Amino acid sequence: MARAGLTADRVTEAAADLADVVGFDNVTLSALARGFGVADASLYSHVRNMRDLRTRVAVRAAAELGDRLAAATAGRAGKESLTGFANAWRDFARECPGRYQATQMPVDPEIVAGSPGHQRIMAITYAHLSAYALPEPDLTDAIRLLRSTYQGFFAIEASSGFDHPRDLQSSWEKILDALDNALTHWRVSS
Predict the structure, then answer these.
(1) Are 117 and 165 in contact, with CB atoms under 8 Å apart?
(2) Domain ranges of the chain
(3) Helix, coil or strand: residue 160
(4) Alpha carbons 66 and 52: distance in angstroms, whole number
(5) What Rg value do the Cα atoms of the chain yield, rounded?
(6) Per the database entry, which stretches of residues form a coiled coil (predicted)?
(7) DSSP SS3 for 8
(8) Whether the predicted model's global pTM rises above the 0.85 cut
(9) pLDDT, tens digit, for every residue of 120-173?
(10) 2-184 has CATH 3.40.50.2000 classification
(11) Distance CA 135, CA 33 (A)
């Protein structure tokens, strides 16, 4: 084991890297072990099982996405913050597709509560919408609208499903304009 230099962090990072190549759902302990030149059983000294490994990748990916979202929204408000947030998330989904998939994995609430990355994403999500002054439950509804829109767009874009000559970036910008308009003119629940 020592000759391979394995640690839980190193195994997690290798799994995240592999996920970006083969897809998060296609990462296996066998493939990781082959990459390290060790037997599958050697990995169990560092991760309990596949669920544990997936959770570790999700926590790592959330930290990475949180860093990007923080940088993209710092000092910005309203549409500028919305655009920065959306573009950072889209770039992450395109550049790190396996890690992006990992951020969409349901994670136990106790783990989310102890994950700085997950907590940071939630805080940034609420903070970047503060300029729209939406009270609850409208704020939650707005977040669900944004998340659904972004994830739908990312999924279709990743599968090359936008088969139309219209420039994709122009469509993305129109979507962000429409979302800003929807948030600006949101009819608050009574």
Answers:
(1) no
(2) 2-184
(3) coil
(4) 21
(5) 19
(6) none
(7) helix
(8) yes
(9) 999 999 999 999 999 999 999 999 999 999 999 999 999 999 998 999 999 999
(10) no
(11) 49
